[in-house]
From TrEMBL:
<feature type="domain" description="Peptidase M28">
    <location>
        <begin position="237"/>
        <end position="445"/>
    </location>
</feature>
<keyword id="KW-0812">Transmembrane</keyword>
<keyword id="KW-0964">Secreted</keyword>
<keyword id="KW-0479">Metal-binding</keyword>
<comment type="similarity">
    <text>Belongs to the peptidase M28 family. M28E subfamily.</text>
</comment>
<dbReference type="GO" id="GO:0046872">
    <property type="term" value="F:metal ion binding"/>
</dbReference>
<keyword id="KW-0378">Hydrolase</keyword>
<dbReference type="GO" id="GO:0005576">
    <property type="term" value="C:extracellular region"/>
</dbReference>
<dbReference type="InterPro" id="IPR007484">
    <property type="entry name" value="Peptidase_M28"/>
</dbReference>
<keyword id="KW-0862">Zinc</keyword>
<dbReference type="GO" id="GO:0008235">
    <property type="term" value="F:metalloexopeptidase activity"/>
</dbReference>
<keyword id="KW-1015">Disulfide bond</keyword>
<keyword id="KW-1133">Transmembrane helix</keyword>
<keyword id="KW-0472">Membrane</keyword>
<keyword id="KW-0031">Aminopeptidase</keyword>
<dbReference type="GO" id="GO:0006508">
    <property type="term" value="P:proteolysis"/>
</dbReference>
<protein>
    <recommendedName>
        <fullName>Peptide hydrolase</fullName>
        <ecNumber>3.4.-.-</ecNumber>
    </recommendedName>
</protein>
Length: 454
């Protein structure tokens, strides 16, 4: 199986998360580049500096040198090398390792069947460079890597048939609910999937989802909210509203956040990425359950809402969920990902009208066409087509296991939020009116497909 593992990173891998490169500092975040003489040529200083990146860089450099000192000081005072364990390697994710343990590496896929073994530090370095990937370590270790999962063709409705039921429900969508939920969700220091606060934020979110289901009475008719556990601590959340068949429609978002400079230490409020998507589909769930037909399990199809853990680590949580679904022969007919739903200023600054971005690469074309009709019928803003590249969010995990998936983001990809993965991914930069458009889309998507004759 080693013939597909590449030892060097291919320079032709598309850099599809370019929104991470928001200033000179961000682009120069890796230590080995930061101190190279060529980095300070005049032409590299033309982009603007941003204060939040300068602040993050200052914290990083301070902690970097402090930890280096803590590493070297015990060596000078002790005759044994065991003193080196005083430093936790995860506390310096951007520092190059001198000795690398192969067992601590992960296998990532940068494009279909283009793979590379990397350390945790190298993962974050790639993300800082705007490179997406899927962590396929579990697949490789189980011997299932390379297994083809053929996506079956699903026929979706060509016209919207339930506007009389959906429009009254959409009027119950409440921006104040989304704001209060997002304010609390971003109050956790970080939602990094390996952190204690990442577990605490997931627990809080689980309670909110459970309350929404119980208050609607849907739990009396078979609806459930369950934790999907993972070995890293933070769990994924799955709310299931059963229908008359096991044909399943999924709406997803990811609950984790990350600060790429020092994931284990620095704050990562993650308001837009992906707190916005998290509270968007939560509000859509509340509104959907106001339908007695849905809440009482009388819809034709089953509906699920997913909040995935560890998207930032390489789509780890969603991969585990869909691997489990494939193993248990779950019949997923459609999956829509909502990742980053709140930022519109980039579009306005570009002189364009407010819109939502429909991803058209690495998605199911039939489902994407259906979503365009949903937006045209139920949203107050138009859509624009855009691309985000390979493995740009959790919909890629559904596709990987043969389930048709689609992705709608806040804008054209190049106009999306540049503050993500830093301490400045805050509520103050978001538009709840824009998030409301995504909530309308999510609600209509779920309701229309709940009755689709698959």
């Amino acid at each position: 199986m080693d013939d597909f593992v590449y030892s060097e990173f291919s320079s032709d891998i598309p850099e599809v998360r370019s929104k991470n490169i928001i200033c000179v500092i961000c682009k120069m975040a890796r230590a080995q580049y930061l101190f190279s003489s060529s980095a300070f040529k005049k032409e590299t200083l033309t982009p603007p500096f941003c204060l939040f990146c300068l602040f993050d860089l200052f914290l990083f450099l301070s902690l970097f040198f402090i930890m280096k000192f803590l590493t070297l000081a015990p060596l000078a005072l002790s005759a044994t090398a065991t003193a080196m364990v005083l430093v936790n390697p995860e506390q310096q994710p951007l520092a190059p390792s001198i000795v690398q343990n192969p067992q601590s590496k992960s296998l990532i896929e940068l494009a279909p069947y283009q793979t590379r073994w990397v350390t945790e530090e190298e993962k974050w370095s790639l993300k800082l460079d705007g490179v997406n990937f899927i962590d396929v370590t579990d697949e490789y270790q189980s011997g299932s890597y390379g297994t083809l999962h053929t996506t079956r063709v699903v026929h979706y409705p060509e016209v919207m048939e339930h506007s009389h039921e959906i429009l009254p429900l959409s009027k119950t969508l409440d921006k104040s609910n989304m704001r209060s939920n997002l304010e609390h969700f971003t109050s956790f220091h970080t939602r990094y999937y390996k952190s204690q606060t990442g577990i605490e934020s997931a627990t809080w979110l689980f309670d909110q989802v459970t309350a929404a289901v119980q208050e609607s009475g849907a739990s009396d008719h078979g609806a459930t909210v369950k934790r999907f556990d993972h070995p890293w601590g933070q769990f994924s959340i799955i709310a299931r509203i059963p229908g008359q068949t096991d044909n399943t429609v999924v709406l997803g978002s990811h609950q984790d956040s990350i600060n790429l400079f020092l994931p284990s230490i620095l704050a990562a409020p993650g308001a837009d990425d992906d707190g916005s998507g998290t509270v968007t589909i939560l509000e859509a769930l509340r509104a959907l359950l106001r339908s007695e037909t849905i809440a009482h399990g009388k819809a034709r199809n089953t509906i699920e809402f997913h909040w995935y853990s560890a998207e930032e680590g390489g789509l780890l949580g969603s991969q585990a969920v869909y691997a489990n679904y494939k193993k248990n022969q779950r019949n997923v007919k459609a999956m829509l990902q909502q990742d980053m739903t709140g930022y519109v200023q980039g579009t306005l600054d570009a002189g364009q009208k407010e819109s939502v971005g429909v991803i058209i690469d690495y998605v199911d074309p039939g489902l994407t066409s259906f979503i365009k009709e949903v937006i045209t019928t139920y949203c107050d803003v138009p859509y624009v087509e855009t691309k985000c590249g390979y493995a740009c969010s959790d919909h890629a995990s559904a596709s990987r296991y043969g389930y048709p998936s689609a992705f709608v983001i806040e804008s054209q990809f190049e106009n999306s939020d540049k503050r993500i993965h830093t301490t400045e991914d805050k509520i103050e930069y978001l538009s709840f009116d824009h998030m409301l458009q995504h909530a309308k889309m999510s609600l209509a998507f779920a309701y229309e497909l709940a009755f689709a004759p698959f």
